[in-house]
Design brief:
seven-stranded mixed β-sheet, 6 helices, 7 strands, globular
Length: 168
């Protein structure tokens, strides 16, 4: 590749690139479910700006290009919620998703005092489920998303050891 992927906090100037990347990345999920109205595909630029202003948003950069993103927020009860983890299709399988997940967990624990983490993914999203299980998450239930897709809810304690497995 020649250069390293750097993970850092997103800036409001990253909002448009994040939205474009998200749209690209979630096409495969939409196809998997036969639903092109899933939440990440209908999100607006204004709502991405709001997420950057109110939550923890991290991006992965390869040079100047945003090639990955993740969002995190925390509830008053100490639950860190992680969502919209995405990695550019050409960079999948190199551990970047695990690195972004780790950044969100660390940020939520350090900056928002999260004591546990919660996330969700579609019930057919086997690659996502494998990533989250390797990261120490366990299924705690399921519920239909606002877009109609059945979501598996996963959780882990912030102090739980993680065995992130990444490939070279």
């Amino acid at each position: 590749m020649g250069m390293s992927v750097i993970i850092s906090a997103a800036d409001v100037r990253d909002a448009e690139e994040i939205l474009k990347l998200q749209y690209l990345c979630f096409q495969s999920e939409a196809e998997l479910y036969g639903n092109y109205r899933i939440d990440p595909l209908v999100q607006t630029l204004d709502s991405v700006h709001a997420e950057i202003a109110d939550n923890l948003v991290y991006v992965a950069r390869l040079g100047d290009e945003v090639v990955g993103s993740v969002r995190g927020s925390a509830d008053e009860d100490g639950t860190g919620r992680i969502g919209k983890l995405c990695v550019h299709p050409r960079l999948r399988g190199h551990g970047l998703g695990a690195r972004l997940l780790r950044a969100a967990e660390t940020g939520l624990a350090d900056e928002r005092a999260a004591t546990r983490f919660r996330l969700h993914t579609g019930h057919r999203s086997e690659g996502n489920l494998r990533l989250y299980q390797r990261a120490g998450y366990a299924a705690v239930g399921n519920a239909p998303g606002s877009d109609g897709v059945m979501m598996i809810l996963l959780e882990k304690d912030a102090q739980a050891p993680t065995a992130y497995v990444t490939s070279a």
